Amino acid sequence: MGNNILLVEDDDGIALPLLRTFEREGYAVTRVAEGLEGVRQASEDQFDLIVLDLGLPDIDGLEVCRKVRDDGYANGILILTARGGEIDRVVGLDVGADDYMAKPFGLAELLARTRALLRRTAPANQPTPSSVPDDDAAPAFLVDLQSRRAFSNGKEMPLTVKEFDVLATLDGSRGAVITREQLMDEVWDQNWFGSTKTLDVTIGRLRQKLDDSGGDVQVVTVRGVGFRLETVS
Fold it and tell me: Which of 16, 97, 169, 216 has the most Cβ atoms closer than 10 angstroms to its Cβ?
C-alpha cells in the first residue's frame, strides 16, 4: 500500500500489537512514545495518517493534535484513548482530529477506520502548476477534487481531511440542502457509530475558515434537515 503512518503511543502493550498489525497490512510505521517527538516527526516527515494516544507522558495528546494542525499537517488524525466521554470526543474533534476510538477497541475496526481515513488522504506529491489557480484569474472560491485542495480568493485554505470532504460534498451540490445523514454517510462512512456532533464541530471549523478567507461562500444551516453551501451576494 505504501502509506506512512505515525504512531504516537507510549504503552508497549498497545503499540507493539498495533505495529505488527499495521506492518502486516503493508503500511510503513514510525512509532514514538512521547508527544513532543510526535510533533517533531510530523513536521519533518510526510505521513498519510497519525494514530495518536491522548495519555502521553510529556504532553497531552490533544495538545499534540493542536500543534501538528497549527504546523500545517492536513492529513488524517485518528485518536486512541481511554477517555470515552462525549465531551472528550468533541474536544478531540474540535482541535483537529478526524476520528476517535475509545479503548479497548477491536483491531478489525481500527483497520477499517484507518483505511477510510487513508482513502481520503491528500496526495503526498505536489500539484502541477496548472492545478494552482493564479491569483488574478482565480474564481473567488474553488474546490479542486483532483488535488484535494480548496482555494478562496486565490489562496489555498488549510483544511483537514474531513473538512475538505464536507466542503467538497456541499460544493458538489452548491445551493442544495445536503442532509446530516448524507454527510455522515459520505464523509464518515456508514461504519461511524459515534455522535453526529463531530459533524457540527467540523462545520463550525469550516465556517470559521471560510470567514477568515474572505471568500464569497458560506455554509448555511437548514434547521432540522442539514446544510447547504451558498454564494454570498
Answer: 97
67 found inside a domain: yes
> Amino acid letter at 228?
R
Distance CA 119, CA 8 (A): 21
Q: Which residue range is the domain that position 8 belongs to?
A: 4-119
Mark whether 50 and 104 lie in a shared domain: yes
pLDDT digits (tens, 9 = 90+) for 104-151: 888 888 898 898 888 776 454 444 334 445 545 556 789 988 888 899
Grid cell of 208 as nine digits: 470559521
What's the pLDDT tens digit per position in 189-225? 655 555 567 788 889 889 989 988 887 899 999 998 9
Q: Which three cell numbers stand for residue 140?
A: 473567488
Is the same domain home to 40 and 60? yes
Between CA 134 and CA 100 the distance in angstroms is 38
Question: 193 CB contacts (<8 Å, ≥6 apart)?
Answer: none
